[in-house]
Amino acid sequence: MSTADLATDRAGGSSAEERSPVDAWTVMERFYAAEAAYVAAGGFGQASYEDVAALLDPEVVLHQAPGLPFTGTGTWRGHDGMERFLARFSEVWESMEFLEQEHWGDKNTLVVRNRVRFRARATGREVDTSIMQLITVKNGRMVECRPFYWDPGAIADACRDTDT
């Protein structure tokens, strides 16, 4: 499937009128795969952002918890903001592996529980943690995301150089 088709599935025809929007979970499955691939490829300057951007509304807003090694001010807006966030995220993490996922919601709103294993780029340490996300999807693209980390201290510790 091409990048242009990532946010829509074929509904049996070939014209744009014959396509139907996919449900929120399908959008997010595609987003998580594109995000993990972007991080694994090295992030900004090393990986293409195109597959991630195709799944984001132009007005997307990400609300991250301030205080973590990759969250900055906590709010990231639009395609540029998300690209800057993922660039920072990729500087911190070498890999992210989704171990378990559960989701609840409807066509436009999801609550997702992700159990994720991250490996810090600077230390090589891994952290296995859970993240709950409240996500809004509209027209086949993520519009808003609010992640809540189960153990932010463990995430920060994995990134902290304890030898200094």
Strand portion, in percent? 35-45%
Number of helical regions: 4
The number of distinct β-strands equals 8
Output the radius of gyration: 16 Å
Described by the principal axes of the CA atoms, the overall outline is globular
Instruction: Determine the mean pLDDT.
Output: 82
Helix content: 25-40%
Q: Strand order of the main beta sheet, please?
A: 4-3-8-7-6-5
The CA-CA distance between the termini, in Å, is: 47 Å
- Are there runs of 5+ residues with pLDDT below 50, and where? 1-20
Architecture overview:
The protein is of the alpha+beta class. The protein is built from 4 helices and 8 strands; from the N terminus they run ββααββαββββα. The strands form 2 sheets. It has a 6-stranded mixed β-sheet with strand order 4-3-8-7-6-5. Strands 1-2 form a two-stranded antiparallel sheet. The longest helix has 17 residues, at 24-40. The radius of gyration is 16 Å and the shape is globular. The model is unreliable at 1-20 (pLDDT under 50).
For this entry, give a set of tags.
164 residues, disordered N terminus, globular, alpha+beta, two-stranded antiparallel sheet, six-stranded mixed sheet, 4 helices
Summarize the structure.
The chain is of the alpha+beta class. It has helices at 24-40, 50-53, 78-92, 152-159, and strands spanning 8-10, 19-21, 56-63, 75-77, 93-105, 109-120, 126-138, 141-149.
